[in-house]
Structure formats: structure tokens, C-alpha cells
Amino acid sequence: MEIIIFAGIVALLACLSAGPCLLVWSLSAKWLPEKYYFPPIKMTFVCVVLSLVTAYAINFELEGGGISILMAILFLSTIWSVVLLPLLLVVKYVFEGSRREKNT
Question: Does the global pTM surpass 0.70?
């Protein structure tokens, strides 16, 4: 029973650490036009996975124990969001422009 409670607490903390990332994608969905829409929950999941892969690739030290990976998720997922959002907007803009040229 204690392991279930601990796993629940870790899952809750992981969701909270992905909060700023979700905020970035939710605000982009609200403020950008519909043709530049990205689903916030899917993009948050992508950024969290990318942050875990990045932490593994740079050999992230768990000096604070297993819970310190949550801080890595917090910072790296937010950084990935801030990097991916402009890149994806440029890609959508370019592909949308090329699609318009083919239709005319």
C-alpha cells in the first residue's frame, strides 16, 4: 500500500513539474490563429519525453535522489517548449505557403 501512495505522489509531482510546459502550449493555443494550433496536452507529453531523453543523454546526476528528476522535467520541458514552439510555427508557415502555391 505504501508503494502505491509513493507512486501516486511521484505521479502528482511529475504532473506539477510539467505545468509550465502545459502553460506555454495552452497559451499558444489560445493566442495564435487556428491554423497554427498545436494540441497542448500532446505537445506537453512530447516535451516531457524529450526532456527525459535529454536528461539521459547528458547523463543527469541524481544527487538529490530520484525526486530530482522532477526538477529536470520542470526546466528541460519548459526549455523544449520554448525552442519547439517557434520552430513548429515556422515549419507550419512554410508548408502552408507551399500548399497555397500548389493550389494556384
Answer: yes
Nearest to 45 by CA among 24, 21, 70: 21
Query: 52: closest CA among 24, 28, 80, 26?
Result: 80
Cβ atoms of 53 and 79 within 8 Å: the answer is: no
Examine the pLDDT at 35 and tell me if it is beyond 70: yes
Cβ(45)–Cβ(33) below 8 Å:
no
Q: Where are the domains of the chain?
A: 2-103
80 contact partners, CB below 8 Å, separation of at least 6: 21, 47, 50, 51, 54
Assess contact for 26 and 43: CB atoms under 8 A: no
